[in-house]
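Students often ask why inverse folding is considered easier than folding. One informal answer: many sequences map to the same fold, so there is more than one right answer. In these notes we will look at a single instance of the problem. The structure comes first.
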């Protein structure tokens, strides 16, 4: 089920909130938690019920392993259990996400004829797999108290963060499920949650999806791109993925707020970063945390010399690239980021000596170019776009680029002021300028929520954005991170 759908906004979410707090009101705490678990499973299996068998099997296998580790803690057999648990989770992930990638790579290198399996990738498998690996590792370290199957399953399947994060740890979520003080409807949290959810929905539907149309058109007409249009396509994807992922993170945290659940911050204005290291401290923060805690530090982190540190960084970023998708373009994207992180560490004094504005520009342009490989379906497609970018072809802008941003709801206002008659490129210019101003010149949604007050102005703003976003629904526009 999608956050940006009629059934979620008009049926699922109200029903879930009302049912959960009604049961808690009558002190049916376990029944309320079971209700929330059932609703989360409905949310997950809405489009494809076969997904339910996968996630339920994953939950049961990991819970059994967790209980066995609890029983054999401190004994040699426990090491075998944690190894089995990690390998099982990674094996499931590899089978569903990477088998065709593996076979196609072998076929292309050795001219073999392995038949591709064309396995449908279960939604969110990368997220709930990593979440359960972190749980098993923490259980092996003796950092987890005894949890029942009900609360473990709720931890894995809690619907706001199930599909695209944040990747939460047990100590961030389960104690909140067990806290009786969080079982009562909190109108202040409800107002904040609706406000944050609406901002995220507006980011996704009104901004990200508008730029998505330009990106899709650009990547399907690469041969006709000029230098200017290639630059706009590149920048459009940079803006699209920002507002798409930022919107999802806002909506997830907002929904959590409605249930009095505090989810960890996962997105913190990454395009304001002055260095690539700071970018990764702000982008998909819980994924960075996972790789740092469970990959980088166990490899030795920065404790075994400079060269080993650089190798560990590259391993982490190559793994991060592969985690994002079963394509060598994703691996190369991770490789580029790893190289830039290593370079900034190697030449730290040089980068520190640069003016902050220049550091920001270098980082932002690098991120833009790297996103080309992230978005492209092949190296050829990525190199074609970059080639167009430096072709020095400054022909007039394709009229279809301008047409994409002529939203129906703006046509009457524009015709009244006759803006487009005087300046046909007004809308596309306005979209890019406003988007960049929102990214760089405004507080992000999480920062705005800290000072949020449920007053008349905020209520009208929320209502206006919610109605506009809902009435602009057309077709199915999934979040980009659903693919990972």
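Output (designed amino acids):
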């Amino acid at each position: 089920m999608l956050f940006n759908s009629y059934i979620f906004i008009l049926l699922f979410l109200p029903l879930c909130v009302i049912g959960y707090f009604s049961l808690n009101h009558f002190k049916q705490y376990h029944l309320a938690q079971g209700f929330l678990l059932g609703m989360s499973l409905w949310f997950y299996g809405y489009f494809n019920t076969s997904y339910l068998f996968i996630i339920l099997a994953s939950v049961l296998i990991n819970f059994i392993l967790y209980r066995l580790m609890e029983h054999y803690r401190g004994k040699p057999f426990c090491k075998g259990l944690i190894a089995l648990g990690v390998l099982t989770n990674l094996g499931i992930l590899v089978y569903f996400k990477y088998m065709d990638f593996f076979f196609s790579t072998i076929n292309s290198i050795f001219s073999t004829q392995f038949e591709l399996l064309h396995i449908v990738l279960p939604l969110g498998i990368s997220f709930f797999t990593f979440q359960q690996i972190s749980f098993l590792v923490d259980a092996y370290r003796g950092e987890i108290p005894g949890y029942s199957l009900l609360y473990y399953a709720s931890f894995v399947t809690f619907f706001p963060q199930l599909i695209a994060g944040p990747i939460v740890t047990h100590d961030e979520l389960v104690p909140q499920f067990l806290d009786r003080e969080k079982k009562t409807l909190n109108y202040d949290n409800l107002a904040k949650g609706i406000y944050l959810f609406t901002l995220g929905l507006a980011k996704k539907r009104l901004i990200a999806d508008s730029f998505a149309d330009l990106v899709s058109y650009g990547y399907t007409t690469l041969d006709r791109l000029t230098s200017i249009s290639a630059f706009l396509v590149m920048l459009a994807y940079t803006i699209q993925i920002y507002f798409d992922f930022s919107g999802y993170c806002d909506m997830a945290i907002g929904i959590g707020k409605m249930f009095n659940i505090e989810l960890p911050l996962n997105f913190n204005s990454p395009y304001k970063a002055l260095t690539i290291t700071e970018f990764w401290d702000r982008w998909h923060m819980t994924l960075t945390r996972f790789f740092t805690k469970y990959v980088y530090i166990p490899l030795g982190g920065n404790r075994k010399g400079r060269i080993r540190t650089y190798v560990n960084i590259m391993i982490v970023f190559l793994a991060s690239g592969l985690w994002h998708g079963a394509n060598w373009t994703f691996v190369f994207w991770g490789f580029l980021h790893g190289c830039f992180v290593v370079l900034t560490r190697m030449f730290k004094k040089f980068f520190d000596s640069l003016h902050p504005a220049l550091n920001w520009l270098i980082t932002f342009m690098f991120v833009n170019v790297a996103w080309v490989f992230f978005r492209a379906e092949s190296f050829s497609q990525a190199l074609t776009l970059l080639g167009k970018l430096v072709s020095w072809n400054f022909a007039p802008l394709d009229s279809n680029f301008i047409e994409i941003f002529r939203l129906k709801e703006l046509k009457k206002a524009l015709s009244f002021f006759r803006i487009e008659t005087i300046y046909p490129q007004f809308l596309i210019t306005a979209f890019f300028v406003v988007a960049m101003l929102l990214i760089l010149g405004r507080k992000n949604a999480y920062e705005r929520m800290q000072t949020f007050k449920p007053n008349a102005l905020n209520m009208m703003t929320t209502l206006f954005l919610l109605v506009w976003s809902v009435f602009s629904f057309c077709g199915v526009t999934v979040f980009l991170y659903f693919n990972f």
